[in-house]
Amino acid sequence: MGSVGASPMTGRLDAVEVSTGEAPEFSVIWLHGLGADGHDFEPIVPALTLPVATRFIFPHAPVRPVTINQGMTMRAWYDILSLDRFRVEDEAGIRASEADVTTLIEAELARGVVARHIILAGFSQGGAIALHTGLRYAQTLGGIMVLSAYLPLRGSLEAERAAANADTSIFMAHGSYDAVIPEALAVDSTRSLEAHGYAVEWHSYPMEHMVCAEEIGDISRWIARCVSAAAAS
Question: Catalytic residue among 60, 90, 178, 189, which?
Answer without folding.
Answer: 178
